Amino acid sequence: MLDAVLKAVDPDLQWAHGPTTTRACGVTRRRAVMTVVSADRRQTFLDRAEAFWRKSDYRIKAVNKDEVFPAVYAVTEAGFGVSVSFRGKGQAFLEADSPCVKESKVAPPTAEPNGPSYEGVYPLPRPQVRSGFWSGSSN
Questions:
Q1: Which CATH class, in words, describes the domain spanning 2-97?
Q2: Domain boundaries, the chain
Q3: What is residue 138's predicted lDDT score, i.e. its pLDDT?
Q4: Which of 36, 90, 112, 121 is the most buried (most CB within 10 A)?
């Protein structure tokens, strides 16, 4: 699900795996965007993710229009929660939460990041990849 929304956002953004965590009955996967997304482009990024989720028949649960920490939250028909949010220093994060599942070993992610993997690095570095579109101004 995270790979699909990242492929749908154009132009491409560089990303890396965030930590995978388990909860009482579910799993959360994360992606950290390593491309600098300027304040002027953050809403564009959120709009493109939201449009993809609507097209994919996800239900939009909430939209946070905060100027500093905007976010979009959605849920799939199968009960998976997905989100994209901007946090400290304007870094974008994508998350997917599974519904309750039977306890089992959690396999590592299979998708390869489209930049450095930062394997074993936590916390991940802040975005440092510049993009003519994402890192610029909308003016």
A1: alpha beta
A2: 2-97
A3: 67
A4: 36
